[in-house]
Write a structure and sequence with these properties.
44% of the residues lie in helices and 29% in strands. The protein is α+β, with helices and mostly antiparallel strands and 121 residues long. A hairpin with a 2-residue loop joins strand 1 and strand 2.
């Protein structure tokens, strides 16, 4: 797809390497509303092994805990947004508040802003 006589940045990325990976920033915060001891135990037994699987998946660029919260973050390379659910599963989604956002590199943003400037946008 060409915009204003120039190739769309997303199209160029796809043409270079075929299937395009997407970078996502995901944050999670453990649900404090889970208060029964049995439920907390189940959550912990569920969540730990799943987070280990995520770390071993080869999809994680960076991960860590957020100081001041019972939560953390992941920066993951995925083929499509739906993969967030298959990678993190109900183990994370059922026990945490999850927020995920696609990430654009500064290089791609600079190219896009340059293209806009050339197009007088």
């Amino acid at each position: 797809m060409r915009i204003g006589g120039k190739a769309n940045l997303l199209q160029l990325k796809r043409e270079e390497g075929g299937a395009r990976e997407m970078l996502f920033h995901l944050t999670f915060e453990i649900l404090e509303e889970i208060v029964l001891p049995e439920a907390k135990t189940m959550r912990n037994e569920w969540l730990g092994p799943q987070l280990q699987k995520v770390m071993e998946s080869g999809k994680v660029r960076e991960a860590g805990l957020l100081i001041g919260k019972r939560g953390g973050f992941f920066l993951v390379d995925l083929d499509n947004p739906e993969e967030l659910f298959t990678l993190f599963g109900p183990e994370l989604y059922d026990t945490s508040r999850v927020e995920a956002h696609p990430v654009m590199s500064m290089e791609a943003a600079g190219q896009m802003f340059g293209q806009w400037a050339e197009e007088d946008r």
